[in-house]
Structure formats: structure tokens, C-alpha cells
């Protein structure tokens, strides 16, 4: 399966120079920084017009032997990326050393589910570790959501989550996170069943609050009108909230916040998220104060609850959650609070608490949702996507099946 749009190749040294994390690629530089690095805003615009199409800027440069009509349209309706001139290419190479897929990350495996949810395994060139990202196409609106990872593994240890069972191996650099977007865009260009990406969620591997600096750089690149050009309301950062200050830090990003609550009762929350160190009331206060400082258009909040059979799916759990939500609505009058119910996806655990976990019945999920709606709250059940290829919520962990040819 081909995941990158191939244009005229160029000669790049087989062994690219080792670059600092901050300069592995143009992805993590601000537009002004890239303009300064390349010697002009025009060059920076050409680079980003390529990146937004999932084409590496070095795969589309122009010399005296290259004649490509950059205005032509291919058989999928995509225009050719703009072309860098030879001088701009030389400056680019001197700074970044090579292509993104050679210096930052490359696609080592792709798994496509029966519903066309596409999980990509990326090889990180810094140290050979791997990370997963998931593209979720939506037939009804002909667009895709991209679920990206901020770390390899996670230290939060949620007992129902496969990534949490890995532990944290390391945080990703901004380049490595944004390279997931780059590779995913390339995939949507070449895989017929995928639609253009218009929504990015930090709901993959890792806890964004444990990698705040890189996450803020990424969110700004996604929302910048000269870079990935997504609306802030189309970017969501989900956090388990390791502490009350988490929300204020992540609220600096041009993105909607989501809180992985899972249980509003302290004892039960501690059981499901063992790293919890604060009461739910303390965490809620941190959320309220952060939302109060945001613009109205970004005061929305999604509360995520993974439902487990017989553990947190009872009517009394729904009522406790409803009571927990009302102070948020009262103290942030313009907020749009939405509860997202996630029926647990089996992670085939052979040890630990997850061995005894079961998916809730459809009847229990429906009753839980109806009770929250009856209490006056917006509540939706997340559609399970990609579970047949371990791409569903909570199932991400780096394990290979078949490599790409």
C-alpha cells in the first residue's frame, strides 16, 4: 500500500545528519520561524502548501530538467504540490537534512478495519520506538477524524486501557506528533476509503498534560492559517487531569478541552485511574477556573466516561455524574457541556484488574444515557470504530502484525 504521493525524486545523502529535536523538520517551526530559516515567506508558503497535501517539500522541487504543471489535477481531484526551486531546496537541506520520512518518522504498518478505520504504526527515527495514530472516516459527512498520540505509552495507568498497561516510554517531540498528521494526510490522498481530515483529537497514546510544551506547539500549528489551517473548535485535547493545574496549562492551546472522568466518585475514580492524587472536586475546580478564562467559543467541555459492566454503569453512577456536572454549568454560564459515553473495548488482558472487566450491555448503556438526558444533560454514546483491528478507544499499543510491502 502506498502512503505518500510520489513526485520527482531527488538525491539525498543516504545518511542524513543528526539534527536537534527542535529542527528535525519544518513541521514544528512557527510560520515566522520557517520564513526566517528559509529566507522568505514565499518559500515557507510553498513548503506548507506541500505539507498540507501530505507531500514532503523535497519530493516536489524544480530544476532545469523538471517540468511539472503545479496546477494540474490528478484522478482523485488533488492538485500537484507547488515546487521549490533549487536554491530553496539547498537551504532546506542544510537546515533539516532530508525528508520527514527519513528524519522524523516513517510508516511501518497500516491496518484497515472493516469500517475503514485505519490504524498506522509509525517508526520514530530518533530511537526506533513506535507510535500509533488512527484515521476514522465518516461516511455521512465525507470527512475523517484523526486521533493522534502525544507519547509512546502512558504513565497514568488507567486499568482499562491498553496504552496505560505499557507504561510511559517517552514523550514525543512536536515534530513527531505533527508527523502523524503529515502521514495521515498522505494516507487520505492515496487510500480511496478515506476522506479529508477536518478534525484532530489528542486521544491516542499518552497523556497530553505530561507533554504540555510539545502539545501546545502542535495545537498552534494545527490551527495556524498558514500551516494546517484547522479551526480551533476542530481540535480536541483530552486529558485524564493528573492535577488541577492541568486544565489551565492545556487551555493555552487553540483547542477544545475534554476530560477523561470515567467516574465522579473519588473511590471509584481511584480504582479506574490509580494515579489520581486529587479529589474530583479539586479537579473540577481547576477545570472551572480554566474555562472561565477562555473565550466563549472555547468554553465547551467534553466529559468522557468509559463504561464498565457492573462497575460504573449503574443509574446511581449516572446520577452522581449529573450532580457532579451541574456546578460546571452554573459557574461557566456559556459552556456547552457534553458527556461522551464510551462502552469499554476489550483489551484481552491476561493480568491485572482488566482481566475481570466486561463490556456493558446495550441496555445499561442506553439506561445510563437516558438518565443523564433526563437530568437535563447533553449525552452521546461514542460509536465503536476499528475494534476489529485494535484501533478503538483504549486499544492502542505498539504491536505489529503484517508489515507494509
Give a quick precis of the structure.
This protein is an alpha/beta fold. The chain is built from 12 helices and 14 strands. Strands 3-4-5-6-9-10-11-12-13-14 form a 10-stranded mixed beta sheet. The protein has a two-stranded parallel ribbon with strand order 1-2.
How would you sum up this structure, described in words?
With 405 residues, this protein is of the alpha/beta class. Helices cover 30% and strands 18% of the residues. It has 12 helices and 14 strands. A 10-stranded mixed β-sheet has the order 3-4-5-6-9-10-11-12-13-14. Strands 1-2 form a two-stranded parallel ribbon. Strands 7-8 form a two-stranded antiparallel sheet. Helix 1 (31-38) crosses helix 2, helix 6 (174-190) crosses helix 7 (212-223) and helix 11 packs parallel to helix 12. The termini are close together. The model is unreliable at 1-21, 62-76, 389-397 and 400-405 (pLDDT under 50).
Query: Ranges with pLDDT <50 over ≥5 residues?
Result: 1-21, 62-76, 389-397, 400-405
Strand order of the largest sheet: 3-4-5-6-9-10-11-12-13-14
Secondary structure category:
alpha/beta
Give the terminus-to-terminus CA distance.
7 Å
* Rg of Cα set: 22 Å
Number of strands: 14
**Principal-axes shape call:** globular
How are helices and strands ordered from N to C? HHEEHHEEEEEHEHEHEHEHHEHEHE
**Mean pLDDT level:** 86
Percent helix range: 25-40%
Distinctive features:
30% helix, ten-stranded mixed β-sheet, alpha/beta, two-stranded parallel ribbon, 405 residues
